[in-house]
Amino acid sequence: MSITSQGKKNAKPRNKWDEAIADAKRRTKGRKFTIEVFKQRKKKGEPWPGGSAKRNTANEKAAA
């Protein structure tokens, strides 16, 4: 038996609210990581995948 499984046996029963909170925390952590990756790529000057910046700028002007 691992340490992790022992800890889960001793933990109090989780309800749906606890599960939702834990899920939201996991998603938040993942999004924060994604934001940091995007910032690093922007800082390095990497182009946006799938298109040029010029094309995106033209589309934004047309939409305005």
| Mean residue pLDDT | 80
Globally, the shape reads: elongated
Number of helices: 3
Radius of gyration equals: 21 Å
Going by helix content, strand content and strand pairing, the class is mainly alpha
Distance between the termini: 61 Å
Helical fraction equals: over 70%
The unreliable regions are: none
- Secondary-structure element order, N to C: HHH
* Beta strand count: 0
Strand portion, in percent?
under 5%
Q: Strand count, sense and closure of the main sheet?
A: none
Describe the model.
The chain contains 3 helices and no strands. Helices cover 75% and strands 0% of the residues. With 64 residues, the chain is mainly alpha-helical. The protein is elongated and about 55 Å long. It starts with a helix and ends with a helix.
Main attributes?
75% helix, single chain, 64 residues, mainly alpha
Ordered list of secondary-structure elements with their pairings:
Elements: H1 3-10, H2 16-44, H3 53-63
A few lines on this structure:
The protein is mainly α.
